[in-house]
Amino acid sequence: MDAESVRRKYKKSPIIEALCEIHFSEFQADSTLPGLLYERIRNKYPIKEQISQNSFEIQFAQGGVSSQKILQVPMIRFFNQEKSELIQVASNLLTVNRLIPYEDYESFVISIKNAIENYVDIAKPKSVERIGLRYINHIFIPKAHINLDEYFTYLPKIRENYYNIQLSLELKPFYDNHLVFMTIASIPNKSQGAFLFDIYDNLKKNQEIDLENIGQNLNESHENIERIFEDVVTDKTRELFEEEDVNG
User: Fold this and answer.
1) pLDDT per residue over 202-225, tens digit each?
2) 192: DSSP letter
């Protein structure tokens, strides 16, 4: 991480899901890939299920994203016993998800690297086409009536009362070879303020597979996400999360 990056840790983390997507080029393995992968990971991920899932296909162009398309992708999921972590496999796609409780980035990235190593050894893909790292947060403010600019810095300053919020931005972040999509949206809740805060970092690669290089790319993505998160929330919001001393 960059020496000037801000690393904060919270007792009441708002993260409800973190996920990493690795999009590969054509691979050599056939329909036996999920079974072969399961044999390697079944001790840690014993629960298996098959689903169809929406997937975003993002077309990149000079200056940003030219189009986005949602696809229905058949996918095999492998859960750990607690269903707090899973690996998902689809055509040319590997996804690693960490659910509640989210521990920390360091343990999450170990799971990601282990999954990539097993997948690559079996499928033998030619290259990595794209890496996506995404953090989904739920933020609850224990008030029925809220002055939102006390809690978020990116909301527009207008006089009218806020009822429903949906703000989406495409950002060029600290590591600017990446693109980041950020969404803040209100969640219906009559008793308190409830908000979805979704940060999605994308890196187009088209490079040969190098686990050390992928790890560096993930560190950059994570730092982009951390910086944006801390830029958007205020100190009043951080009080809700109960910040810990990371040096203690």
Assistant:
1) 999 888 889 999 999 999 999 999
2) S
